[in-house]
Amino acid sequence: MPELPEVEALAAFLQQNAVGRIVTRVDLAAVQAIKTFDPPLSSLGGLEITGAGRYGKFLDLDVSGLHLVVHLARAGWLHWRTGLPPAPPKPGKGPLALRVHLDDGNGFDLTEAGTRKGLAVYVVRDPSEVPGIARLGPDALEVDGETFARLMAGRSGQLKGALTDQTLIAGIGNAYSDEILHAARLSPFKMADRLGDDEVLRLHGAVRATLTDALERQVGQRAATMKGEKRSGLQVHARTGLPCPVCGDTVREVSFADTSLQYCPTCQTGGKPLADRRLSKLLR
Fold this sequence. Notes:
- By secondary structure, the protein is of the alpha+beta class.
- It has helices at 4-17, 131-134, 145-153, 159-164, 174-184, 197-218, 226-232, 265-268; strands spanning 23-28, 49-55, 58-63, 66-71, 76-81, 96-102, 107-112, 120-124, 252-255, 260-263.
- The strands form 3 sheets. The chain has a 4-stranded antiparallel beta sheet, with no helix packed on it. Strands 2-3-4-8 form a 4-stranded antiparallel beta sheet, covered by helices on one side. Strands 9-10 form a two-stranded antiparallel ribbon.
- Mean pLDDT is 93; it is low at 280-284.
């Protein structure tokens, strides 16, 4: 899933390559992707792209005052295209969800792999009209230590869920939450409202350090290379069975119905493996 660093890097890429260009046409290939009808997609035609930014994990393209807002969900991505074909794509064929044509013949595709479709596209006059944006908590890279401590103290749930709750803190997803907890040496199942002062400081520092490092590696990359750059920097996420690069212990996994998390027992849980929540009581 694209998270804060990747979406910020995509916005920076579009700032360099799309801002100043005129949208000549927008082709919708997956009807379920569009979540708004007023203004229509066609209203973007003939307008200049004047800015690109981010709200949490939402990508925002300012098109002369209208906003093309995209949530890439779990398996969505943006692909920059040079020399787009003039013929419109056939709806429902392949992973393509949306295609944006620009006046220089280039443009970009929004695609989504797999059968579970969650990619969402909105055309709005103000980004706050998007329900997911209206509900966002403070940005993960902007929240200060005092606010972060207050948010954790008021959350009666596990750290993994707290970090990925966009209404609490915006921008962190499954991968970077694993990385943050590993860097902070904290169990994903520890309760957020039971953190000691030192643990809160470590966690807040890990949020900033992990996301800042990822962002520095991502910005300046071409859209096509960002996913690989993300994978290359991961310490525990998606590394089940491999040695932890910090201590050498084997990275373990806990699976859920539709996702999983990875962690290092030595670094995070005092050497104790966490039980799969589907099978037995969680170890904290």
